[in-house]
Amino acid sequence: IPKLELVSLAKEYNDGAVVAVDGIDLCVAPGETIALLGPSGCGKSTTLNMIVGLEAPTSGDIHIDGQSIVNIPPGKRNVGLVFQDYAVFPSMTVRQNLAFGLVVRKAAKDDIDRAVDEVAELLGMGGRLHVRARDLGGSEMQRVAIGRTLVTKPAVLLLDEPLSNLEAAARLTMRRELRRLQSEIGLTIIYVTHDQIEALSLADRIAVMHAGKILQVEKTSVICERP
Ligand code: ADP
Ligand code: ADP
């Protein structure tokens, strides 16, 4: 399980007119979940996009196990990003959706089937592999979105407001589900949210972001008991 480090990481847009991320330092320990908590526009998504490789930093560095990854192309970084809106293909089955990331990487069919079965089992979707995504409920859809990322076996998992499109009941179920996943697969996770309860319930530490900066990092165990 790797360690992830952000070193004076910054991103400007429009020749510096917009400072989206303003030199942040953060060290995520192996197997740790850190929540990035902050209001809309504070730079959370930009931070994740730089880690996964969708955006290049203006300055600073990103290390996985001490190695800089900023020059490694997105598909080869071993970092998985789960988007806010599911990015699940509605007319494809659960199996096809889960297999997608491996099919585009041209993995062997046997390997794909094995990886998909394993992830489906892990997510409690083993009996739903032939259902079309459009016929799934909200939390099942979210499981598929997470599963699509997990099949590629990322060492670092980034979750961008993964529960924000769910109804309250489904959100509770998925919070429990995510906690189980954390303990079963032991990934290093950054979890972006603007919801304090979610951050408290899922993260080991919370990094509070505001206007492109990390204001403070606290252990959730210090703040309160897990809700
Ligand atoms: P959050 O995820 O916390 O809502 P973002 O990372 O999306 O915040 O955005 C941080 C800031 O950067 C915002 O002010 C946003 O408007 C700006 N921003 C994000 N992407 C771009 C872009 N491609 N061009 C210009 N400004 C951007
Ligand atoms: P989030 O808060 O989840 O980042 P946004 O609605 O802020 O969602 O941004 C959606 C997309 O628009 C992102 O890809 C972001 O990079 C881009 N974006 C955000 N703000 C701006 C902006 N001021 N100019 C150009 N692109 C932007």
UniProtKB/TrEMBL annotation:
Domain ABC transporter: from-to ranges: 4-227
Q: Which domain of life is it from?
A: Bacteria
- The answer to keyword Heme applying to this record is no
In its keyword annotation, does this UniProt entry include tRNA processing?
no
Give the UniProt entry's GO cellular component terms. Answer: ATP-binding cassette (ABC) transporter complex, substrate-binding subunit-containing
Keywords (A to Z) from UniProt:
ATP-binding, Cell membrane, Membrane, Nucleotide-binding, Transport
GO MF terms on file? ABC-type ferric iron transporter activity; ATP binding; ATP hydrolysis activity
Question: What protein am I looking at?
Answer: ABC transporter ATP-binding protein
Protein source organism: Desulfolutivibrio sulfodismutans
Of the parent protein, the shown chain spans 3 to 229 of 371
